[in-house]
Design brief:
One of its GO terms (molecular function) is transferase activity. Pfam families: TsaE (PF02367). Keywords: ATP-binding, Cytoplasm, Magnesium, Metal-binding, Nucleotide-binding, Transferase, tRNA processing. By secondary structure, the chain is an alpha/beta fold. It has a single domain, classed as Rossmann fold, CATH 3.40.50.300. Helix content is about 30%, strand content about 30%. Strand 6 and strand 7 form a beta hairpin. Helix 1 crosses helix 2. The longest helix has 16 residues. It starts with a strand and ends with a helix. The model has no long low-confidence stretch (mean pLDDT about 90).
């Protein structure tokens, strides 16, 4: 039985979204996979940029909408940034995504639900939702370890914030 856990992160603006990205970057190791989803303009690329900066990527990170996959060098490990919005399941299957998912770096997949069958069984899913103005609600689901444990820590942090 696979371990799962869920958490909710409330971001009043970009800085709180970036705070979550920095926290997850700190916990990440080679082979970490973050699956991002949400409406257009919900902050997926903003999150990815903050995450990349947190792992030491010096290059400008922008959405790989037309290139599909961009690779960056971070301080401790590579960063693989994917946007699969324009791909069919079959096209995505031909890209050899497992080389990234199980490689030496950390992977963020934007629009991940479109290739759900190809994602590793253990991953962190984040769904970003508009909550008025710059505010966002980020629903997080950790599937397997260490991701389920990450959600538990985020829940504890949320409880402490609300006390």
């Amino acid at each position: 039985m696979e371990t799962t856990s869920e958490a909710i992160w409330h971001a009043a603006g970009r800085e709180q979204t970036a705070e979550l990205a920095r926290l997850l970057a700190e916990w990440s190791r080679p082979g970490t996979v973050l699956a991002l989803d949400g409406d257009l303009g919900a902050g997926k690329t903003t999150f990815s940029q903050a995450f990349a900066a947190a792992i030491g990527v010096k290059a400008v990170v922008n959405s790989p909408t037309f290139t599909i996959i961009k690779e960056y060098e971070g301080l401790a490990m590579p960063f693989y940034h994917m946007d699969v919005y324009r791909l069919s399941q079959e096209e995505a299957d031909e890209l050899g995504l497992d080389d990234y998912f199980y490689g030496e770096g950390v992977t963020i997949v934007e629009w991940a639900r479109l290739i759900e069958e190809l994602l590793p069984p253990e991953r962190l899913e984040l769904f970003l939702e508009h909550a008025g103005g710059d505010a966002r609600v980020i629903r997080i689901k950790g599937i397997g370890e260490p991701y389920a444990a990450w959600c538990e820590v985020l829940n504890e942090m949320g409880e402490q914030k609300n006390e």
